[in-house]
Write a structure and sequence with these properties.
Layout (H helix, E strand, L loop, with lengths): L1 H33 L3 E2 L1 E7 L4 E11 L2 E10 L4 E9 L4 E10 L10 H43 L7 H47 L6 E10 L3 E11 L2 E11 L6 E11 L5 E9 L22 H15 L14 H20 L4 E4 L2 E3 L1 H4 L7 E7 L1 H8 L7 E6 L7 E5 L4 E11 L6 E10 L2 E7 L3 E10 L10 E7 L2 E8 L8 E7 L3 E7 L5 E5 L2 E14 L5 E8 L9 E4 L9 E3 L4 E8 L4 E13 L7
Parallel strand pairs: 1-4, 2-11, 9-21, 12-15, 19-27
Antiparallel strand pairs: 2-3, 3-8, 4-7, 5-8, 6-7, 9-10, 10-18, 11-17, 12-13, 14-15, 16-17, 19-20, 20-23, 21-22, 24-26, 25-26, 26-31, 27-30, 28-31, 29-30
Helix pairs in contact: 2-3
Length: about 625
């Protein structure tokens, strides 16, 4: 009996001990479960021609001493060497570890757009399945009706009587018509559901480009001097973003300045949506930074083609790459500071005179209460009129002064351009959003005007079309970037051109399109062209006539070009014959290109000639 009692006591104690251990383990697991990960949000992005630097902010509540937190919501596509983390309130970051969460497929459904698309696809798939079932049933019924009617009509030896036949035919007609109408309607529904599912799947594929099936995760080991709430700033470089410049160029007429609107196209697939962030565009290209080259001794030796290819590859490797990130951030706009100062000054005067100043915003009078709600960052310019100047312009109501405010009306008013020794940055002053699906977002940067000289150009040997060119001098002052340009002339889109800022030419030339009102014709003159045999040599003379007519009702400047061959062998002689040829304005002998540049009056026609001879051995075929 005692033994049994002792065994019971031991079993009871073991059970209690096991319960305590399970409780402690459960408590520890529940405590660990309560340690939720911290969500980081994108606050700022500096986008380069290739790649971007993202800055995230996160907030975490820490206890005194050692802490471990996990920060989620980072891009999975980052350069880990560029990762930088800062913490506030004296929190020390002991260690950090970046990893990618590949088990976050379910996070796709957290995207509201993706969730709606998936729900809609499931809805239409259910509808499609139901209509397919009904189609099959009604098709089977129609087939049964056909067989039953055939059997009923032809099954009897004597056949059906007239009354029975009429009843059978009436029944068949009404039932068959009912079934066919139902089948047509169901096929229409089926076609509609299939097209809806196809459209939704295509849109879902577009949304899935965001690559938000994975997430960047940062695990931090921290030491806090006191229990505190710390602000974390995380920055890193990612290659999954870029921007390109482009231009909208408008020419109102050839006697007015060219209007150049500089714009940018931005896209990113970082796996994150950038919602109302601070955006900076930079002309720097971190991935293409290079180390300045140094000379080594140049030894000459005989090398084969394999060695030559190897050396070319080795030279590329020796150049190396080094990231160069140079960018600056603009301070608060000067106009915003000015409007605050002027408003404060006039309010102080108001306390003395018990009268408020007159507020004029974009030419419209505004009450003080409404004026005080204006965002200072939206102010472009502020002018203050006082004393006699204000009353002379606005009467006695302005005796206490006038605040004249001009608001920013265009996107380029919110863009601040900054230059340093290496690059240019464009600081966007208002929050900007860029989705993570890779769709390009357009942004206006700045508008400029500049005078240009207009000329008509034709090289009829290559193309008989006559092109209108705009030549811009001192174009370096525009601080343009290479890119495509959409050309509009007198309000009509005429095509696309290219701005090449790497050119070493003094003039920036834009091709504005062809003009058929300036006609050019090139023809070979048979009477002035000949072939002669001189011993073992052949001498050929070629003469071409170029006719130009200005069919416009105004004078134009015309540039006409043609070409003669250049010899690279001693036994081939080429001579430009100038005696019977209109003297060109320019003759570039190295290229064999001659140019005539003249002014044409309305309706004027001019004729030009180019003549040259080629002497070469009979056994050579030059393909002239």
């Amino acid at each position: 009996m005692k033994l049994t009692y002792s065994l019971n006591i031991n079993c009871l104690m073991k059970t209690k001990l096991a319960f305590i251990l399970i409780t402690l383990l459960g408590t520890s697991f529940s405590l660990k479960a309560e340690s939720k990960p911290v969500k980081a949000s994108v606050k700022e992005a500096t986008v380069f021609f290739t790649g971007a630097e993202l800055i995230h902010n996160a907030t975490a509540t820490l206890t005194k001493g050692e802490n471990e937190i996990t920060i989620e919501g980072l891009s999975p596509n980052i350069d880990r060497n560029s990762l930088k983390i800062k913490a506030s309130n004296g929190v020390l970051i002991s260690t950090f570890e970046f990893s990618i969460d590949y088990l976050s497929d379910g996070k796709v459904t957290n995207n509201s757009i993706t969730k709606r698309l998936q729900d809609s696809i499931e809805y239409y798939q259910d509808k499609l399945q139901l209509v397919n079932t009904e189609l099959k049933i009604n098709s089977d019924l129609s087939e049964i009706l056909n067989k039953s009617t055939d059997k009923n009509v032809s099954g009897s030896e004597k056949g059906l009587g007239i009354d029975e036949l009429v009843k059978t035919m009436d029944y068949y007609k009404s039932k068959k018509l009912e079934l066919e109408k139902t089948l047509v309607k169901q096929k229409s529904y089926k076609d509609f559901y299939q097209k809806a599912i196809e459209r939704l799947n295509n849109q879902l594929k577009q949304e899935s480009v965001k690559n938000n099936k994975t997430s960047g995760v940062l695990k931090l080991s921290l030491t806090a001097p006191i229990a505190t709430t710390s602000q974390f700033t995380i920055s890193y470089y990612t290659a999954s973003a870029n921007w390109i410049p482009y231009y909208d160029i408008n020419i109102p007429s050839t006697d007015k300045p060219i209007q150049i609107a500089s714009k940018a196209k931005i896209k990113q697939t970082t796996g994150l949506d950038w919602n109302k962030i601070k955006l900076i565009l930079s002309t720097a290209t971190p991935s293409n930074g290079k180390i300045a080259p140094l000379f080594n001794t140049w030894f000459l030796r005989d090398i084969g083609p394999v060695c030559a290819a190897y050396e070319r590859g080795a030279k590329k490797q020796l150049m190396g790459n080094s990231s160069q990130m140079g960018y600056s951030y603009a301070d608060q706009s000067q106009s915003a500071i000015e409007v605050t100062m002027h408003a404060t000054e006039l309010r102080q005067r108001e306390k003395i005179s018990n009268e408020s100043p007159l507020y004029i915003v974009d030419g419209i009078q505004m009450e003080e209460q409404e004026f005080s709600t204006i965002d200072p960052n939206m102010v472009k310019d502020v002018q203050v009129l006082k004393d006699a100047t204000s009353t002379a312009a606005y009467g006695s109501r302005a005796s206490n002064g006038v605040v004249m405010v001009t608001l920013k009306s265009n996107m380029d008013d919110y863009v601040t351009s900054n230059e340093n020794d290496l690059n240019t940055t464009y600081d966007i002053e208002i929050p900007f959003s860029v989705p993570g699906n890779g769709k390009e977002q357009s942004l206006d940067l700045k508008n400029q005007e500049i005078q240009a000289a207009y000329k008509y150009y034709c090289a009829p040997k290559l193309d008989t079309e006559t092109y209108l060119l705009a030549e811009i001098s001192n174009w370096e002052k525009l601080n343009l970037l290479s890119g495509k340009a959409n050309i509009t002339y007198d309000g009509t889109y005429i095509g696309e051109s290219i701005i090449n800022t790497k050119s070493t030419q003094k003039l920036l030339t834009l091709t504005l399109g062809s003009d058929k009102r300036v006609a050019v014709k090139r023809e070979k003159l048979r009477d002035y062209s000949s072939t002669k045999f001189l011993g073992n040599d052949v001498k050929q003379i070629f003469t071409y006539k170029l006719t130009v007519k200005n069919n416009q009702n105004k004078a134009i400047n015309m540039v006409l070009k043609d070409q003669y061959p250049i010899s690279t062998q001693k036994n081939i002689e080429v001579e430009l014959l100038t005696k019977d040829t209109t003297t060109p304005t320019i003759n570039v002998e190295d290229l064999g290109v001659i140019t005539w540049e003249e002014t044409f009056q309305p309706g004027e026609t001019k004729v030009y000639q180019i003549s040259y001879s080629v002497k070469y051995p009979k056994n050579i075929n030059l393909g002239l």
